[in-house]
């Protein structure tokens, strides 16, 4: 097998599938130990997802928030990185099957394949309402958003113009709130500065939530604050409106029809379908139930961490699908595997330490929930920025993102307003109402 | 028409097609004059093409070297920007036809549509050997290059591995030389740091030139220096070898067959087909002959500037297709049109001022040809870097590029090693020789 052409007899093998927050943390914790580690991912890069909405809204470049997995793990000589797709697991033979038909043996298997957006049975909506999980999707959203403005500038039909300038964000979680705030700021700036035939009052940003409130995981005082700030930025928040239909240019939520030029999906996630490899029906959102040591119930050599796992907090409640849970699970599991495989020691159960929950609404406005106390406003926004810069992967990215944020703060300019392809080809002739 | 819903009687209209170096310079020179200017481009952004090879080799992000045309021209209230594609010109009616069937009137028309790569009748080669003109192509090349290394890491067939690690650059002009040097540096670094199963001596970078020497526009002492530096970096230079065939994994040049994982085309350009709009057969490389005032022969109201125009130097020789020629022609024409349209003054003929010619070979190695004197080596490289940072569009980009270059100089790391899509899908199963 490729990860050890000259295997040392007796060196234990750990295979980690997925190099997100969870998988990378587990790999790092196993770094430079006397264990052969193989990390498999379908992509060549990791991604700092909390800032992906800034790529979608033209504030940052993809490379600012991602790094090749090889580079992240390059310093650990015991870790191999494979660009491949896992298609199945043979738990009896202890092998992982890869696309192309080959397979890879393991002593311990770690499944950290994350989550994907849940369209609740309407996968056809995905075409018109992309989620925000990959660089590809972020670029797609950026392109649609910017193209809608370009088309609106060319249109001479006021209704069409208004529809093109309406963005609909489905789902009132942190990602939806962040996208809505960022789109409102971007749109207002572009209309003021760069477009001649568009007016502020023609632009709408609508945040649609099926439940009774947005930011459901946050306490009420923060939600009220967020609502006020969103309103100030020009975002309309509609609650109790489950989405009924999504087409190219219209969203129907409850009985409300909204014509739109750009739809973004952020309404809940489901676990990756990795459970199928083991014949497991996932529970809530397809997540795989795990034991206190994060092994999958019934499979003591196979572990699940991050969004794909359904871990339980000490109070018996399911842990949320958050980056900090994924990271802590990865760190715990890497260390536990090392102790078990090398010293035969059994680790205690995984314990989640809540570092607080945050969302940013826009310029100078963010919220933090630390459980016992909360923070909002300018100070929260500054803390949010500092924490997120700190969490970036290296000094270069921290410097680059800081400079771009400071630049943006001072000028309101966004540096990455690129439509990648031959953009004119995307403008259908019917919307080009130039005089003939 | 869209560029002036409230046209002032008598305000002259200038339409500029293409927002590259030439078109933008012309538009800027017309900025805030009492003239209605419309700039039409198929893309929403301009592009600093001299650094595009750094996007293709993962050193910079697309947004570092491009800016929305709207933003560049946003400060001039008399300039409209249209994202559209021109399909024809009616010189008698003085209108430009757009995709979608609409049309736009002009008093003066400026054609600045640039050039494209010339495959000399073999347009099918384009699929396997993309040129380096757009962000899309730069990303495509980056993706192929990085994927070839990923495939090589997985391959267990030494011949296949060697083929995948062989890059072929066709065309020994500045772009070809810059790409070859940058790929050699990138490949060597990645093999040392990030790949476990690849060796330096398995990597090849081959620069193929049909003529007797590379960098034909430069004096011999600089060419000799460039050859030595390329050799040091690990680039093989093959001259007098016209390319006979290009397929997915093989280039045949003369009688030499080279198996390869990544082919890049840089072998000569031809003018955009704008001449066809006027029924003009272009001359050398399809370029449109222009008068000393840059009007197209026989069309006193239509001007051609930049790569698409065949201007003549004072000695009667054709001007080269260079950014500095384009920029100077744009500046001259913008000023001349303003004087003519507003004051009725006729401008003197266009005169090109040669600012010198440069190419960069790699770390610490560049060449400058200023006509009377030349410069090479470390100092030339530093000058090259300073000039190119200075030529970037604003302070933010200058700062971002400087930081990335300094970071790269110190660490040899390249920040943008991204394969964008679901990369594993690109790895065909036949190359995945993992043990079964």
UniProtKB/TrEMBL annotation, chains A, B:
Substrates-to-products reaction catalysed: a quinone + NADH + H(+) = a quinol + NAD(+)
GO molecular function, one term: oxidoreductase activity
Domain annotation External alternative NADH-ubiquinone oxidoreductase-like C-terminal: ranges: 356-411
EC number: 1.6.5.9
Residues annotated as transmembrane: none
UniProt keyword list: FAD, Flavoprotein, NAD, Oxidoreductase, Transit peptide
Family in the record: Belongs to the NADH dehydrogenase family.
Keyword NADP: no
Protein name: NADH:ubiquinone reductase (non-electrogenic)
Record domain FAD/NAD(P)-binding: where: 13-330
